[in-house]
Amino acid sequence: MPDKTAPDAARRSQRSRQAICEAALSLVGETGYDKLTIEGIAARAGVGKQTIYRWWPSKGAVLLDAFTETMEAGEGTLPDTGDLATDLKAVLRATVDEFNDPAFQAPYRALYVAMVNDSEVSAGFTSKVMEPGTQAYVDRIRAAQDAGEVSEDIDPRLAAELILGPFAQRWLLRSQPLTHEFADSLVDMALTGLRPRNPRA
Amino acid sequence: MPDKTAPDAARRSQRSRQAICEAALSLVGETGYDKLTIEGIAARAGVGKQTIYRWWPSKGAVLLDAFTETMEAGEGTLPDTGDLATDLKAVLRATVDEFNDPAFQAPYRALYVAMVNDSEVSAGFTSKVMEPGTQAYVDRIRAAQDAGEVSEDIDPRLAAELILGPFAQRWLLRSQPLTHEFADSLVDMALTGLRPRNPRA
Amino acid sequence: MPDKTAPDAARRSQRSRQAICEAALSLVGETGYDKLTIEGIAARAGVGKQTIYRWWPSKGAVLLDAFTETMEAGEGTLPDTGDLATDLKAVLRATVDEFNDPAFQAPYRALYVAMVNDSEVSAGFTSKVMEPGTQAYVDRIRAAQDAGEVSEDIDPRLAAELILGPFAQRWLLRSQPLTHEFADSLVDMALTGLRPRNPRA
Amino acid sequence: MPDKTAPDAARRSQRSRQAICEAALSLVGETGYDKLTIEGIAARAGVGKQTIYRWWPSKGAVLLDAFTETMEAGEGTLPDTGDLATDLKAVLRATVDEFNDPAFQAPYRALYVAMVNDSEVSAGFTSKVMEPGTQAYVDRIRAAQDAGEVSEDIDPRLAAELILGPFAQRWLLRSQPLTHEFADSLVDMALTGLRPRNPRA
DNA sequence: GCGTAACCGAGACGGTACGTCAAGTCTTTGA
DNA sequence: TCAAAGACTTGACGTACCGTCTCGGTTACGC
């Protein structure tokens, strides 16, 4: 006996689910996160509001689902040419281009908002969107460690954050433009560190 | 060139302004950003709604004003004991504690949301809130350069971002807890970089 | 051809409609027409504002509906004792009493205001409220014509107005009190006219 | 002990008074009574709101003042050609034309609303606007009594109402158009009455 | 001829109500 | 049988005015 007349997932209409996700993505691109409404999504999807409320707890959750759907085929690995700096720069430059594309930026920024507000969404976003990307960095760095290109005693995850954190911040704050030069400098600095290579001695 | 019959700032009631800022801060702490309403602020402040709309364009702007007011006395400099790592760790540990304090965290997180949504707020937030803090790091790092503790050819601002970016990211994503250990590791890694200090030694 | 995605009248909640009408009538009696507010009606009726806006275009229209509802059972005929003067006086005296009753007067006066302002309401008021009452007079006068008591060449409708018009004006203007004597005199004068019965000749 | 620090009428600005009256009349013609606002009048007149509140208790009172001002030169008498019917018809036809003029109709209708709502205005309206007009009818009818044209035992004031009441009613209700034919019929019927002139002849 | 007391314009203030929009719940209807 | 359609209550939105108040400035009177 279900506690709350739980919906029967088996009978779920895939057509509706699809339409709702598409509507949510296209609307958030047009109007931004906080003008995104359940009513609007329902109307655009040609669906009753209840169909949304039945399956998602909040508009943030809808957005998260919609977003993850578009990136099913996450390319989980970074290239490995043997030179870590080159590989990281290549990937980060591509990411720069992606985050400068308005069509991609709008829903991503919306998700960020949804996430900061709602720790439910936060968990999903972290594990489904952020984690795969980060893990690819971690793997590549670990490979570099095995090749002796990176010091053994550093934590690869923290190292990944050292690169991705400043990148994300600059994108969020819009404080300075995201450029390829920025990507390159960031990688270089992360690899080298602040301290002089050959201290006095 | 008057934009729209601008209100006369000279006649502005300081009592109201104060009350509105306080109400905004206390409410955002209680209910979170997206349950924060202009009506609620007006009611709590004992003020007509129009008095808010007259002086601020959005609730994000109110929040920004309210927040900046509490940090007028920005501590603009970092300590300088001569050892950069020690100084950065000390400050970052203090920041960790601050960002773990729920009373501080709520309005700050709210501001982040306001900012990601609204590039108007974004600019104000960056220049009034982020910039002073970042600048203190920049100054300290430049001092370290003068002392020969940091390589001459790095950009101090980018270096500051290298530390603050990962920190902000971890706080926003709630992916892992903010601890003193994290602060220390972050500083160490930023100073040293990923590459082995003494390659092939 | 529905103008604007017209609501589906079949699904209309009769409970809400009833409550709104009752609330409107009781409130207008307490506060007068221009202190009557949609918000007040909604609150008193325990109903959302939107439920009012969905079905009525203005507070005048609500009032008109509410008022007509109370007089569904319009007694459409005047007594006919064979003596027109007697019958008219009897009815007009009753009307005097009715219009001196504050409980009746308030909403009626309010409707007058709504009507003078708004020709939409004006038409409804005329056809649903005024017309039935006037028609009863017309019928009785026509009967009197058939009985030879009233001249054949007068227009019964104009005759009805000859009696009701002065009555309504005195009520509206509050210039002099509405009394039974006034009713009697009015009927007498309307029947006899100003001219001497037996002119010189 | 002054009740409310009454303003000093001697120092009143006639320029402002004039401007307010003109603004009130022109605005009520453009927007109707209930869209007429004190703020609007003040703005149009180039006057502070307080200047209105200082001298008038309500917008109805302003309107009444404004209206009476335009009819200072009240034509206090009806023509007397010796034939009452002719004279009454002439005047009533002129009144028909006046009340069909939109420029005149709008403020007059507005005043009616103000009056039905507010018994303060009602008294002023009756005595300053209605009374002079009615009195002219009363005088003319009394003259006709002296000339033997009208029965001695009728009340001239009631007689005046017998004509003016139906006229006002038809104008207010917009139930049927105001025409010269209506004016003529009304006068004829009022003079003759409903009963046959020569019963049983 | 010089305060000084008023009215004046302007408009900010704490409020109320507007008419709209959307949230989230509940009921009716059709396939 | 359940999804759609959509009416319902609730409540915030941003706007328009309310009537009160305070601000300089400008008369115009009384000393």
TrEMBL record, chains A, B, C, D:
Entry-linked SUPFAM superfamilies: Homeodomain-like, Tetracyclin repressor-like, C-terminal domain
InterPro entries xref list: Homeodomain-like_sf, HTH-type_TetR-like_transc_reg, HTH_TetR, Tet_transcr_reg_TetR-rel_C_sf, TetR_C
A Pfam family that the UniProt record links to this protein: TetR_N
DNA-binding residues: 37-56
Keyword Transcription recorded: yes
Ranges of residues in domain HTH tetR-type: 14-74
Secreted in keyword set: no
Highest taxon listed in the record's lineage: Bacteria
Record-given protein name: TetR/AcrR family transcriptional regulator
Species assigned in the record: Streptomyces luteoverticillatus (Streptoverticillium luteoverticillatus)
